[in-house]
TrEMBL record:
InterPro entries associated with the record: ATP-dep_AA_Ligase, ATP-grasp
Name the UniProt record assigns to this protein: Carboxylase
UniProt keyword list: ATP-binding, Ligase, Nucleotide-binding
Pfam families: ATP-grasp_4 (PF13535)
Length: 416
């Protein structure tokens, strides 16, 4: 006898690396029948999905829509992705299936220049920003805005090509650095360089679910930035009782930014600087946060960002019910020397404090890894998470995990 499964059918467009995304699928599987659209044969995902369709590396929207309509266990209740590069196709697929999604809004989030223009039109607080097409123009705009300034590509992620420029003597090399960034999958791609006002203060991120235009914060993370002047995110802390989650000025800024972008349904990852002149929007991404941030939110607050994201993808309001007030944190580790060939990689787990939560290895034997800037995208060799009652306990646990990491038998600082 066939047992009817009344869980909603959710289409997932790609997944990502297991070490960074498995916890999300683990949350979704009990509540949804997840069908995966992927460019390669699924592996670890098979423990969590109800089915999978291989459609080749390009994941054409028309092919995905046709495949979705052929699924025998439909209809599809929602479509979503947490892959930054696949957000445009996912939005188009949702529209093709009559589900929540807006390709124009996704484009405004994906391209930082379009984001800046939309926020400026609505007078939402953000840094001054201008596209520059030459070094001469960069010098002129930097002099107008005032140093320090930030250079960044308009449509990449993971802080690739982002650099802080302290003064005019550094600008030429910095402009060459950002202009030289290339996209591995698009050989003809060249960056549109943005020159922006440097905003002082702590940087945070807010993952939020948006339903019919109402923005519900799910998880607020405080960033650790390293490897200056390259603005690399090396860690995050999530406080279960962070007062910023209830700050009316910050909540108003989030709502205003989403309204300016026209973002009415879906999930976002918004980066904000808490400047001396008030909070400023740095960017708004139309996806969940990476770097294990939703996992930290789950461990620190009990709020399941994956389930909230699935709910709004299916046209339902998110259910947000915090049930704890802990602190959770993550730190990422790099080799000390460029072009390090990883022969052995592991943590010495003996004697680690109980606050150490997860230890993950991100490199295989024989692979090369470099610290930033060369290793901004794939230079990380490992990460550790910690959960405790206080930030200081998490910090000590992550320090201990870093000291316990061995690359080719040696600590990261000594292995070269």
């Amino acid at each position: 006898m066939t047992v009817h499964d009344d869980r909603p059918l959710l289409l997932m467009v790609r997944t990502g690396k297991r070490e960074f995304r498995e916890y999300l699928l683990r949350s979704l599987a009990p509540a949804y029948r997840v069908h995966l659209f992927t460019g390669v044969a699924p592996t670890w995902e098979l423990d969590y999905v109800a089915g999978a369709t291989e459609l080749g590396g390009l994941l054409d929207v028309k092919a995905m829509a046709e495949a979705a309509l052929r699924l025998p266990d439909g209809p599809v209740a929602g479509v979503f992705t947490w892959d930054e590069a696949r957000t445009p196709q996912t939005a188009e697929l949702a529209v093709a299936l009559g589900l929540p999604g807006d390709p124009a809004v996704t484009a405004r989030c994906r391209d930082k220049l379009l984001t800046r223009r939309a926020l400026a039109a609505a007078q939402v607080a953000q840094p001054a920003s201008v596209p520059v097409g030459s070094l001469a123009q960069a010098f002129a705009e930097a002099a107008r805005i005032g140093y320090p300034v930030i250079l960044k590509p308009s449509d990449l992620a993971l802080s690739v090509g982002v650099i802080k420029v302290a003064g005019p003597e550094e600008l030429a090399a910095a402009y060459e650095f950002t202009s030289a960034v290339r996209h591995g999958a698009l050989p003809d791609w060249r960056p549109q360089v943005l020159l922006e006002e440097y905003v002082d203060g702590e940087e945070i991120s807010v993952d939020a679910a948006v339903h019919h235009g109402e923005v519900t914060p799910l998880c607020l993370a405080r960033k650790e930035i390293g490897h200056p002047p390259y603005c690399i995110e090396i860690g995050h802390y999530v406080h279960g009782d962070d007062p910023l989650l209830h700050d009316p000025q910050l909540r108003r800024l989030l709502q205003d930014a989403h309204e300016a972008l026209g973002f009415r349904d879906g999930v976002t990852h918004t980066e904000i600087k808490l400047s001396s002149r008030g909070p400023r929007i740095i960017e708004v991404n139309g996806r969940l946060g990476g770097d294990m941030i939703p996992y930290l939110g789950l461990r620190a607050t009990g709020v399941d960002v994956a389930l909230a994201a699935a709910a709004v993808a299916c046209g339902h309001p998110p259910v947000v019910a915090p049930d704890r007030k802990l602190v959770a944190a993550v730190r990422f580790f790099y080799p000390a020397q460029p072009d390090t060939v990883v022969e052995t990689l592991d943590f010495d787990r003996a004697g680690l404090p109980p606050a150490v939560d997860e230890l993950a290895l991100l490199a295989e034997p024989g692979e090369r890894r470099s610290p930033p800037p060369a290793g901004t995208v794939n230079g990380r060799v490992a990460y550790a998470t910690a959960v405790a009652a206080t930030p200081r306990e998490c910090e000590r646990a992550l320090d201990a995990a870093g000291a316990a990491l061995r690359i080719n038998g040696l600590p990261p600082a000594d292995h070269g």
